[in-house]
């Protein structure tokens, strides 16, 4: 199976690099600076076992049709990525990897439903600079189909990806995406501060804020009648249990969990986009809850505020100090 990965950020680079190492024929599509860096020096991937350089094949556009095209750009960049490569996308199968729940919908007008595959990435990676990424921690790659029943092809895809990643196939991909959305809620706070996850959540006040955002979001999702489904290594009960605890107890658990995610500093996907001068995916994470609340004629003021603050940082380039962000939420 010939594979193309569109998006040479953290996740796309890790995927292309590790699949190339297994002997798969992979093309990584990236921006000019990324392509030049990888062509000149290879793709440097740092893991807990050290750093290695992988000679990944790269280009600025697809050069032909591929059996499988994996979109690893952020949700807000999906349409442009499609337009840039549409000449070779007409008949191929596509796999989405985006955070949030809208990635498949954003591409659905361009592809036959049966050719669309969806996924959730549970491993964490950080984009350092063009051609250099860190795999902060391993995790599952969960595959499903957003619009049609599971088929034999998804098992073929899973078999290839399993050469480099632990893979699970599920018929409940959308319910799992809603659960993963709440795991990604924590990215918004470090994005306002320009801090790593570990540094941010060493402060219990920001753990408390994380719990408040979570509780508000869960209330909206429950009101909408959305059923979340457990992930292979993250049961729904973990989120619901934290939400049902006294806030001080929940904040303590959140602090222990988030400060121990990785030995290397872990920068959430939203902050990584901001630091690269690109719009973030905040509208597809916390903003998804605010949008859903509005459709139900409910209010989600905390999530609406964090979305607005992230956009302020995007637009001004000025981050909040911890004291300023605490003042915004009355902490």
Summarize this structure as a short list of keywords or feature phrases.
single chain, 331 residues, alpha/beta, Rossmann fold, N-(1-d-carboxylethyl)-l-norvaline Dehydrogenase, domain 2, eight-stranded mixed sheet, four-stranded mixed sheet, 45% helix
How would you describe what is shown here?
The protein has helices at 10-21, 32-41, 78-85, 103-107, 152-161, 173-183, 188-193, 197-201, 204-223, 236-243, 247-259, 269-275, 286-295, 301-316, 322-328; strands spanning 3-6, 26-29, 43-47, 50-54, 57-59, 68-71, 93-96, 116-121, 124-129, 132-137, 141-144, 167-169. With 331 residues, the chain is α/β, with parallel strands linked by helices. It has 2 domains: 3-171, NAD(P)-binding Rossmann-like Domain (Rossmann fold); 177-328, N-(1-d-carboxylethyl)-l-norvaline Dehydrogenase, domain 2 (Orthogonal Bundle). The strands form 2 sheets. Strands 5-2-1-6-7-8-11-12 form an 8-stranded mixed beta sheet. A 4-stranded mixed beta sheet has the order 4-3-10-9. β11 (141-144), α5 and β12 form a beta-alpha-beta unit. α9 (204-223) crosses α11 (247-259) and α13 (286-295) packs across α14 (301-316). The radius of gyration is 19 Å and the shape is globular. The mean pLDDT is 95.
């Amino acid at each position: 199976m010939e594979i193309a990965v569109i998006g040479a950020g953290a996740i796309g680079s890790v995927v292309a690099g590790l699949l190339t190492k297994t002997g798969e024929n992979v093309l990584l599509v990236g921006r000019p600076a990324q392509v030049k860096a990888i062509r000149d020096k290879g793709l440097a991937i740092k893991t807990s076992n050290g750093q290695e350089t992988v000679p990944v094949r790269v280009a600025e556009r697809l050069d032909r049709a591929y059996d499988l095209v994996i979109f690893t750009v952020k949700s807000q960049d999906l349409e442009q990525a499609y337009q840039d490569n549409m000449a070779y996308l007409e008949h191929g199968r596509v796999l989405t990897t985006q955070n949030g729940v809208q990635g498949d919908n954003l591409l659905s007008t361009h592809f036959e439903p049966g050719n669309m595959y969806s996924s959730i990435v549970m491993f964490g990676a950080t984009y350092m600079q063009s051609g250099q990424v860190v795999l902060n921690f391993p995790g599952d790659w969960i595959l499903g189909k957003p619009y049609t029943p599971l088929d034999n092809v998804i098992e073929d895809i899973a078999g290839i990806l399993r050469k480099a990643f632990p893979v699970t196939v599920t018929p409940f991909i959308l319910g799992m995406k809603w659960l993963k959305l709440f795991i990604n809620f924590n990215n918004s706070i470090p994005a306002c501060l320009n801090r790593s996850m570990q540094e941010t959540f060493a402060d219990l006040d920001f753990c408390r804020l994380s719990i408040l955002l979570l509780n508000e979001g869960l209330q909206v999702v429950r009101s909408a009648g959305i059923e979340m489904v457990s992930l292979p290594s993250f049961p729904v009960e973990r989120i619901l249990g934290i939400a049902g605890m006294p806030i001080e107890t929940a904040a303590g658990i959140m602090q222990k969990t988030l400060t121990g995610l990785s030995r290397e500093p872990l920068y959430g996907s939203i902050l990584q986009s901001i630091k690269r001068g690109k719009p973030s995916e905040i509208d597809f994470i916390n903003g998804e809850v605010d949008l859903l609340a509005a459709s139900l004629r409910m209010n989600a003021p905390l999530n609406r505020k964090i979305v607005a603050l992230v956009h302020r940082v995007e637009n001004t380039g000025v981050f909040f100090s911890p004291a300023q962000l605490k003042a915004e939420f009355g902490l």
